[in-house]
Amino acid sequence: MSVADVSKPAGTAWRGLNAPLMVLVGSVALYVGVALWTGQTKMLETDGILGLLQRMVALGIVALGQTFTILAGSIDLSVANLISVAAVLASFIMQGRTEMMLPAVGVVLVVSAIVGVVNGALISWLQVNPLIATLGVGLILQGMLSASFTDFAGSVPREFQAVAYGSFGVVPYSVAALFVLAAVASIVLRATRFGAHLYAVGGNAEGARLAGIRTDLVTIGAHVVCSLAAGVTGLYLASRLRSGAPWIGRDGVYDLESIAVVVIGGTLLAGGRGGVWGTLAGVLLFASLDAAFNMMGVSAYPKLVLRGAIVIAAVAVYTVRTRGHVA
Hints:
Blueprint: H1 3-6, H2 13-37, H3 46-55, H4 57-71, H5 79-94, H6 101-124, H7 130-148, H8 158-165, E1 167-168, E2 171-172, H9 173-191, H10 193-203, H11 205-210, H12 215-241, H13 248-251, H14 254-264, H15 276-296, H16 300-321
Antiparallel strand pairs: 1-2
């Protein structure tokens, strides 16, 4: 059995390919339609479009990492708390000093990678259910963070704030970084051995193991990528908020929303099929919803209701798409 055989579920190809395009078209139609309906045509100009893209950055980065874990047939509920840890740790180490920027970034990435290894090891070596393992790790992180910090911790220097507020001409650094990361992730998934093994493990873990793939290392690798993405998201939020706080990841609901946009973008929750561009289409849908509600002057609560309905609909569509999936 080849890697190609175990990474292509039968009967789902056309559905998986159509999902990202449908979400993308729906997102654009929603944004343009509401802008025209409310008479806010300025939202269709350059500044409005760039604002929409900036809404995608934080959720988009962590969702790229979540895509790797879901493709591997796993999931990560620790990302929201890890985002808080990364933001607080970065601002606490920097304390507004430029010379501490690189050490802070290095420490955040190392801590994030360690969390990813722990998550992956619990799942692949100790056979703990991914939901339980990553939820438990997330609770440990949140407990440690809340015991040490109760408010904003430290600050980041002006130079680091350029990550969120700087730009190449009219294109913000953060937006450019999101799409560069997406391109790199796409290349890794489509043109490397690790990517092929990831699809194989998610599509048929037992078949992949019999084909000689170290499924445990693939799972750990996927969780390391996911945790690193959460760490980068925390760094971005620290730059945007000029500091870090224990609640920014939790209040952003980045754990559940990152899973939702991945599934909405056409990635099978069971693993083995999907990709990062579909994930970005799902992120664009959520960003378009936020922008549409703001243009209509609607409060945040109906937005949560609508997002919940979209998630339910996405899972329903996922159920239909996975009929005929070869486990």
